[in-house]
């Protein structure tokens, strides 16, 4: 055995993309009791993982990636600048740890993708004509609702 493990938490750096990585020191794990079914085990063993990533204090990610990650995190971002992910899908700690880390890395990978800039376009001549024709037709329908002028009744 060479001493290497497949555990991503064992390394000091965790790869996000080919060039970007996060430091293990920016991650904090808390084990909590999972909700839901689990029999007698559920009230005794803390298998759920609450993974915290210090986004504000991170120095390895560029600012634009941090900004997009904060927007993608939404309500999972604390006022202190931490992304909090809770994983309790599986019955074992290890699977929940892997799940939480993978979800964090997915979020950070999405944040690395720059959004395509929107190009302003003008409406086509045909669409303008169709819009005005629809407005005229609607106006005619409303005009027909008025009182008739030719009846003395």
From TrEMBL:
Its EC number is 3.1.1.29. Residues 116-146 have a biased composition (Basic residues). Keywords: Hydrolase. It holds the Pfam family RF-1. InterPro entries: Pep_chain_release_fac_I. Residues 109-153 are annotated as: Disordered. Residues 33-49 form the Prokaryotic-type class I peptide chain release factors domain. It is an enzyme of class 3 (hydrolase). GO terms for molecular function: peptidyl-tRNA hydrolase activity; ribosome binding; translation release factor activity. It comes from the Bacteria. GO terms for biological process: rescue of stalled ribosome. This is Peptidyl-tRNA hydrolase YaeJ. It comes from Roseibium aggregatum. The lineage of its organism: Bacteria, Pseudomonadati, Pseudomonadota, Alphaproteobacteria, Hyphomicrobiales. The gene is yaeJ.
